[in-house]
Each structure stands twice: as structure tokens, then as C-alpha cells.
Hints:
Blueprint: E1 5-11, H1 32-50, E2 54-61, H2 69-82, E3 85-95, H3 102-111, E4 115-121, H4 125-130, H5 137-149, E5 153-160, H6 167-180, E6 184-189, H7 197-204, H8 212-228, E7 232-235, E8 238-240, H9 247-253, E9 258-261, E10 266-268, E11 272-276, H10 280-288, E12 294-299, H11 302-314, E13 320-321, H12 322-326, H13 333-344, E14 348-351, E15 354-357, H14 359-363, H15 365-369
Parallel strand pairs: 1-2, 1-9, 2-3, 3-4, 4-5, 5-6
Antiparallel strand pairs: 6-8, 7-8, 10-11, 11-12, 13-15, 14-15
Helix pairs in contact: 1-2, 1-10, 6-8
Amino acid sequence: MARPASLYLHLPFCASRCAYCTFVTSTERELLPRYMAALRREVTLLARLAKRPLRTLYLGGGTPSLLPADELSELFSVLNGSFPRLPSAEVTLEANPDDVTEERLTFWKSLGVNRVSVGVQSFDDGVLALLSRRHSAQQARVALQSLLAAGFVVSADLMLGLPGLNRRRLEQTLEALVQLSPHHVSVYLLEMDKPHRLALLAQRHAGLFPSEEEAAWQYLTTARFLRRAGYRHYEVSNWARPGFEARHNLRYWQGGVVLACGVGAYGQGRRSRWANTPNLGEYMASLESSRFPRTFRSYLTPEAVQAEKVMLRLRLSRGVRWQEAEALAENRPRFWQLLGDFLAAGLARRRGERVRLTPRGWLVSNELFATLV
Length: 373
């Protein structure tokens, strides 16, 4: 039997576009049937080349929870015939709180979905309105409660550095989250260098947004709050109760094989990297001609593989073996110099044969990681 792999499927359709979004998404829901036919075709074509049992399956978006039952059923029928899942496979579906209903939970479970990642972002209605989110704080609470009661592993997404997110509102959001007690929490700082509507708002009303120092305080405060609540900070942006780390995401960070289908989807082999076109029309037209919609495919040199491995391992709380980092000193002298600076400043720590970044180090890790790309 071929070695197990992971599979990511991108489902780009949304009811509306959030103010911070830079993902490959579409609100042209009339294209959904055509897109789903193309996606099923890509799954079938990929299985002919790389049929493997799946240890994880991830349906991301976009808003996968919007998909009608008949479309999801057809998709899983093709998946089951193309990529058999291991009995212990993690199957994740991303969901908006306002899509969570008892009927949908029963249906998702019948398909084999056992983990749901919920885009909460905040438990403050004022902040949610500025983000152009469709749900309310109360809908988010009810969604998490319903998912937990139904037996799903539940992950909740939060965002920091948001307009209107002051210390009081952050503390209220964290308290609400911990009371609900999801298994997993992902926390993201708003990236102001991306082309989204909030970046344009910041140009006109900078005072609505926290300073870089305040955003850093929010991140470190969140880390301490979640740690005290029993969550382990196992990756830059991710916390989990013991045993509930995101197994699919760990495959990326640990260099596993992750197959990928869908518009804008990115996949990786041991040395190969590839991506599909982010253009929805081009994606569908390619697959209607039975052609893979690749926009690039590359193969890393052994040195580049090692550099990427060190970068990804430094995203994890376990860090990387000192010997592996040291092996890059000759070819990546800037990385080696910066790592020394991080150690001297307390942004990284070496214990025994491993080196890892601290939470403060993770806050400024992009400078270090840029030397490894």
C-alpha cells in the first residue's frame, strides 16, 4: 500500500466577502455547480497519478459550510472512490457560525466529518460588524455549543490587531472562548500589508487600529490567557488541549505529503511544490478539458529542503535540532547571524540539542524566516 498522505480541497464560495479577506474566494454562487463538477474531475485525475490512503482531509475556503447537501454528497462519493481514508483519519470542514444547524451537523457527521473549524474571529458584535462578518457573538456561542454537544472536535479562529478591539473587548472575547472550551484555538494578527478593505480603512482612520505595540500586547496576553486555561501553544498561531493539535496543519509544518485540489490550492511532496491557478474561470476551463490547472510546479534542492525544514520547525514549540540549524551557517550566513541575535535577546532559547523561538520571538519571526526562503 502507498504511504498515507493528506488532501486539501478548496471551496471558494462565500455569501459575502469579509473586510480582512485576501483568500481566493468568490461570491458568484451561480458558478457553484460548474465549479464542483471541475473539482470532482480534478480529484479523479489526481487519484490516477497519486492514489494514496488519507490520514487527513481538509475542506477549506471560502465557506465550505455553505455547500448544499447534494453537492457535498457528490463530492464525498468521488473522494471515497478515489482516496480511501484511514479509520483514524482527521476530516475537517471550515464553517461560519451562522451556517451551523442541527440538520447540517447530522449530515456532516454522516459524511465522516469529525472536526469543524469555526470562523468566530471575535465575541464582540461591534468588532464583528467592522469585519463585515454575517454572524453575531451569540450565534458564535450557540454554534460552538452545538458542535461540541454533537461530538465534533472543534477549533475556533480568533483575530487580533482589529479596529475597535481594545483591551476590555479582548478580555471579554477570551473569557467567552474559554467558557465554551473548544478543543483547539487559532489566533491570527491582522496583516496590514495585504490588499483588503481594512487596510484601506486604516489609511483614512488609523486611530481605529491598535498600534504595533498594542497588537503585540494582545498576542502575548492571549498566549498567557490560553496557557492558564490549559491550552498548549504548539505553533505560532495555534493552541490546543493535549491530543487535539491540528493534524492536517502539522503535515505542512513537518514536511509531509499534502495533495491539493481546487482553485488556488497549494500542494507539496517531499521535494516538489505546486499550485493551481487562482483564476476561477481558468481553473474550470482547464478541468473541463481534462487538464490540471497548474500555475507552477517546482522541485527544491536538498539545501532548500533543509532550509524550509528549519523554518517550519521553528514555527513549532518543539523547535528544531541545533545541529540542523547549524548546518545552514555556511550557505545561509544571514540566518545564522540573526539566530544568534535572537538567542542573545531572549527571542530564542537553546536547551540541550534543540533551539526554539519564544512567543516574543514568534512575533518578529518573519525577519528570521525571510532568510530561509
